[in-house]
Design a protein that fits this description.
- Its EC number is 2.4.-.-.
- By secondary structure, this protein is α/β, with parallel strands linked by helices.
- The chain has two domains: 198 residues, Glycogen Phosphorylase B (Rossmann fold); 171 residues, Rossmann fold (3-Layer(aba) Sandwich).
- The protein has 14 helices and 13 strands.
- β1, α1 and β2 form a beta-alpha-beta unit.
- α2 crosses α3 and α7 packs across α11.
- The termini are close together.
Length: 379
């Protein structure tokens, strides 16, 4: 199949959508498909893109930019003639949203995957739904977890199915050789883009609370991997509370270095409440770490309380859980044993199967037959 992925966000920008989309394209190419990516994210300086990456340049004004991007999108769709258009959207994805409408009304089989939580956004989703009549678009809808699908289902109404299409990991690349041994100093790790949505500053306050709960004679270390607009404020907070001598900020790391950080850790924490899935948490769980996460997030898709980790609805509960895992070696080792020896069900074999299943659903929903429709359905 020729598959066209459309996303406002792509490499070199790093985040959940960007990482998942890159991995999905790599797996589809390995299967013999012909995936392409259309994005408005600018290229990295002095880096030549693969020929299947198409970057659309938007003008400075938002309206003019969308008009130009829409024209370029239509030209690319006509040139590429895809069997399926797979649109990846977040909370604010003007180009991808335009692409979903354009592709579906041109008759292309179109699947939209929502990678964010469309809750706590005030009247924005309902207003968009009312103005654009999203439920009437001839396409298939999906979200990356049941948690993310729930507000989308409420918005679109009972007549529009919303499927679940989870993210995935390659277990073989993350599973440890055995059950990880305890590090010399109990170490709490988090991997995130340092933004308000990911709750960067609340995480620092949670760690401060953990330090107060753990006996003074027990050493404690934290490693917060990532970068983003909240990093300067985080650095100031750590200095103000004299935490910078035990909380490390190594910045953005590649996957090889992240594996090394996880191998020398005791607990992984994912504090975001609006986390639609949590790829970093899934990677840590696959690497054998107990995961502490918000019970309001999509991490519940693969972490069950007291089995793969501990879940809490408040920052105080998260601090309690982290302190408990730091000081209770038997609990920590039991969860680590399970996570290191039982692979998660969210692997790429299942993700590829489910993705192509929903491509067939998108083909069945399309307004008119398109090239490769029978081939999509068969896949």
């Amino acid at each position: 199949m020729r598959i066209v992925h459309v996303s406002d966000c792509y490499l070199p920008r790093l985040g959940g959508i960007e990482i998942h989309l890159r991995d999905l394209v790599q797996h589809q190419r390995a299967e013999g498909h012909d995936p392409h990516v259309i994005t408005t994210t600018p290229a990295a300086p002095d880096v030549v893109d693969e020929p299947w990456v198409h970057r659309v340049e938007a003008a400075t004004g938002p309206l003019g930019g969308l008009v130009r991007a829409d024209a370029d999108l239509r030209r690319l769709l006509e040139d590429l003639t895809p069997d399926v258009v797979h649109v990846h959207v977040s909370v604010l994805s003007p180009f991808a949203s335009t692409a979903a409408r354009r592709a579906s009304w041109l008759g292309f089989a179109t699947l939209v995957t929502v990678h964010s939580m469309w809750s706590r956004l005030g009247p924005l989703p309902a207003t968009a739904h009312a103005l654009l009549r999203l439920g009437s678009w001839p396409l298939a809808w999906s979200a990356v977890s049941e948690t993310a699908a729930a507000p989308l289902r409420r918005m679109l109404g009972p007549g529009t199915p919303v499927h679940v299409l989870p993210n995935a990991v390659d277990p073989a690349s993350w599973r440890p050789g055995g059950v990880p041994g305890p590090p010399a100093v109990p170490t709490v790790v988090s991997v995130m883009r340092m933004t308000r949505t990911k709750r960067t500053l609340p995480l620092a306050r949670i760690l401060l609370d953990v330090r107060r709960r753990v006996p003074a004679e027990v050493p404690l270390r934290a490693v917060l991997v990532g970068d983003g607009p909240q990093r300067p404020a985080l650095e100031r907070l750590l200095r103000r509370h004299r935490m910078d001598d035990w909380v490390e900020l190594p910045g953005r790391l590649d996957r090889t270095k992240i594996r090394s950080v996880l191998a020398d850790a005791s607990v992984f924490v994912a504090p975001a409440e609006l986390e639609s899935f949590g790829i970093a948490a899934l990677e840590a769980r696959t690497a054998g770490l107990p995961v502490v996460a918000s019970s309001l997030s999509g991490v519940t898709e693969f972490v069950e309380h007291e089995r793969e980790g501990l879940l809490g609805a408040t920052d105080g509960m998260l601090a309690t859980h982290i302190a408990r895992l730091v000081t209770d070696a038997s609990l920590r080792e039991r969860i680590a044993q399970h996570n290191a020896t039982v692979p998660p069900r969210h692997d790429w074999v299942e993700a590829r199967r489910r993705t192509h299943e929903l491509y067939a659903q998108a083909a069945a929903t399309a307004r008119m037959p398109v090239r490769g429709l029978a081939r999509v359905s068969a896949a």
